[in-house]
Amino acid sequence: RSPAPAHSARTRRGASAVNFVNMIDNLRGKSGQGYYIEMAVGTPPQKLNILVDTGSSNFAVGAASHPFLHRYYHRSLSSSYRDLGRSVYVPYTQGRWEGELGTDLLSIPHGPNVSLRANIAAITQSDRFFINGSNWEGILGLAYPEIARPDETLEPFFDSLLRQTSVPDVFSLQLCGAGFTQNYSAGSSTVGGSMIIGGIDPSLYVGELWYTPIRREWYYEVIIVRIEVNGQDLNMDCKETEQFPSGFWLGEQLVCWQAGSTPWHIFPVISLYLMSENTNQSFRISILPQQYLRPVEDVASAQEDCYKFAVSQSSTGTVMGAVIMEGFYVVFDREHRRIGFAVSMCHVHDEFRTAAVEGPFHGVDLEDCGYNVPQTDESTLMTIAYIMAGICALFMLPLCLMVCQWRFTRCLHPLGTGDFSDDISLLK
C-alpha cells in the first residue's frame, strides 16, 4: 500500500523550530520500573526523582521514611509549603498510597525555565507503591483533572503549568527501553529517554508524525480499530478490542535462553491500527518482541536471559503503556486533542525487522469503533428508585401492623413480669 500525499493526520519533521536541547535525555529509569525526571520541590529546593505517568493526574511525593526511599520530601524544611488541610487516597492498578494535600513551589531543572505553585500530595502511607531499587521518590500524573483524587477540582501539575506560565499545551516522550539500550547487560538495566515539555523536538524521531484524536479527556483515550499479529488480523469486533482472547494475555510463565541468544525472530510483530484525524482512515504502529517481552531481573542466572509477556488487560480498555511507547516518539498534543506517533531515534530493531509507523489505511465509520461503557440515564435511575421504594413499602407494611398490634396489647394489660419477658422476646 503506497503512502498518500501529506495530509492533516501526519506532520513532517521540522515543524517545530524551538530548541529543546536542555530537555534531551532528562529521563532515567529501569526496565519495568518506569521513567523518572528530576524535580526541585520547595524553598530551598529539595531535589527528588519523580516517576512520569500519563495514566494518573496527581503529583505526589514520599514525605515519610520508607525502606525503599533513600530520600523524601520534608515539608517542615520548605518555607513555601502550604497545608490544604485535606487528605487523599489513590489506588493504582498495582499499589496504593495515601497522604496529605498541600501546595508548594516546583521547578524542573532539565525542563522549561519556569517555577510554579502546584498541588502536592505528601505520601505518608503506601502499599506496594514504591519499588525497591527504582530510584524514584514520587509520581507526576500528566493526565486530565477528571481522574484526579480526591476529585476533579484538584488541579493537576500540567494544568497549573499552563495557567501560570506561557508553556504551550503539549509535551512529548521518547522512552528508550532496555531492549535497545546500547549498554544494557544483565543486572544493569538502566534506561533513558526524553520528556519535551511544551513542544516537539524533530531530532528525536525519524519519518513523519501520525496523529490519532483524543476521544475523551480523562486518561488519554484513543481508538484502536484493528489488531494484527504477524500480519494476520485477529478478526475481532473493533468495539471489543479490550476483550482479547485469554491466551493473548498469558504472562504467567517466563521464557529463558542462554545469555545473548534470544531468538527474537520466532516471535511475531504486533500491529495496532489507530484511527487517524480523518475518521475514515487509520495508521498502524508495529511493535516488536523486544518491546513486548520484558527482561526479568533477579530470576535468571548469569548464563541466561529471561523474559515475561509485558502486556496486561484493564477493565477500562487496553492500556498502551511504556511497552508500546518504547521505540516511538509520542506527542501528547493536548491543545489539538490528539496523540502523535513517529518512529523514535532509539527505536528497537533487529537484523530482519524494525518498529514502524505507517499509513494511511482506509475504512468506513472508524469512529464507531470507540468503546462505550454502558451508562444508565437519569430517567431510568428515577424509575429504579420508585420501584425500590415500592418494594420497601410492601415489606414494611406487615412489620408496622405487628408493632401497632403489640402497642395495642400493652395498652389493654398492665405491665408485669410476664409481659417484660415478652417485650424482650419481641426485641430479639
UniProtKB/TrEMBL annotation:
It comes from Sinocyclocheilus rhinocerous. Responsible for the proteolytic processing of the amyloid precursor protein (APP). Cleaves at the N-terminus of the A-beta peptide sequence, between residues 671 and 672 of APP, leads to the generation and extracellular release of beta-cleaved soluble APP, and a corresponding cell-associated C-terminal fragment which is later released by gamma-secretase. Cleaves CHL1. It catalyses: Broad endopeptidase specificity. Cleaves Glu-Val-Asn-Leu-|-Asp-Ala-Glu-Phe in the Swedish variant of Alzheimer's amyloid precursor protein. Keywords: Acetylation, Aspartyl protease, Cell membrane, Cell projection, Cytoplasmic vesicle, Disulfide bond, Endoplasmic reticulum, Endosome, Glycoprotein, Golgi apparatus, Hydrolase, Isopeptide bond, Lipoprotein, Lysosome, Membrane, Palmitate, Phosphoprotein, Protease, Signal, Transmembrane, Transmembrane helix, Ubl conjugation, Zymogen. The chain crosses the membrane at residues 384-404. Its EC number is 3.4.23.46. It is found in: Cell membrane; Cell projection, Axon; Cell projection, Dendrite; Cell surface. GO terms for biological process: amyloid-beta metabolic process; membrane protein ectodomain proteolysis. GO terms for molecular function: aspartic-type endopeptidase activity. This is Beta-secretase 1. Coiled coil: none annotated. Residues 35-342 form the Peptidase A1 domain.
